[in-house]
Design brief:
This protein is α+β, with helices and mostly antiparallel strands.
């Protein structure tokens, strides 16, 4: 997956990107992309998606890392964002 490159969909696709606020602390034995672990450049985490979807992408930052942002304690908040975005 790390070398996969999608083709831009053309135009501006309405979409919602949930960006975790904290980079994932991956074990040293696991090789992961920089955007997965490093939050020093917040635009880097969405650059690939923005290329595919255009400027219609709304970004919401969620507390925690990639896995923590879907903890039960955050489900209500994220659900309300998804409902608001869909309307």
């Amino acid at each position: 997956m790390k070398d996969y490159r999608g083709l831009p969909l053309g135009g501006s696709i309405p979409s919602l990107f949930l960006r975790c606020a904290v980079g994932y602390a991956a074990p040293e034995a696991i090789e992961v992309h920089k955007w997965f672990t490093d939050r020093s450049d917040s635009e880097e985490t969405v650059a690939g998606w923005r290329e595919l979807l255009g400027d219609g992408m709304k970004i919401l930052e969620v507390a925690g890392d990639h896995f923590e942002m879907f903890n039960l304690s955050r489900v209500s908040l994220i659900s309300s964002w998804l409902i608001s975005f869909a309307h």
